[in-house]
Model the fold of this input.
Amino acid sequence: MSTRVSPTEQLRAEIDDLFEVSEEGRRLGDTLEQVARLGARLLLQTALEAEVTEFLCRNRYERRHLAADARAGSRNGYSDLTVKTTAGPVTLRRPKLRGTTTQFASRLLGKGVTRTNALESLIIAGFVRGLSVRDVEAALLEALGPEATVSKSTVARVCEAIKDEFDAFRHSDLSLVELEYLFLDGSHFRFHQGATAEPVLVAWGITTTGRPVLLHLAPGSSESTDAWAGFLDDMARRGLRPPLLAVSDGAPGLIAAVELRLSKSLRQRCLIHRARNLLARVPAHGQSDVKRDYWAIFDDIDAAPG
Done:
């Protein structure tokens, strides 16, 4: 890849490649886990580069004489920086500068950050709290201490960039996606301390070529029929055609919405949800045998017990 491509653009390309390139034996869960890890790196890398933009008062490749209040100095490549988190090491590309009259020091990477899970705390808190300027600053203060505060303009720039990318994802064209399987589920999160958990509705699928694809994300006040029907309508307006098979849990609102909006598609109860419900009614000493026989039914129907 060209050296003129920034680390943030490289990370975005890696995320796109995870969904665009189908690899033999790759499970959807593994793909989504890799996307989450790359997304964490992308958030922090974007913040680092935003700090440099603020310090120099001009964007990458912008001429100094064309930028108002530009500071002396220029970007001079990157150096690797490994940060330890509870999820494992995260490698960032720390921007380097030359020709500056004042030494640049990142306020994001405070003292001791490589020995803590501060970055992980920042990412989780930032996303869960809605990525507002005030909340991200609070997360930074909690994670890194008062010496590592980031200016409001830097936080706002990072939040705006992420919001723009998410908005582009929510309105992207789905007319060329040919689905075999559509998976629908809701996960509940507490967006603010002390608040009631609220659902985030999620849709992903497997195309006719076997490629996993993330289709839609949206907050919902509930998992009612109306909420799920509106969610499915959003994807239809973006051009998504009905899949061969829609997979859901047993939530009545979701089932009703699928039957209303995807009446031409087959519907199946999620095998994992069904397995969890089944095992919850089996004594602990018998769960391993039941689980083995349960999956044998679907892994090899000819050799299935019974």
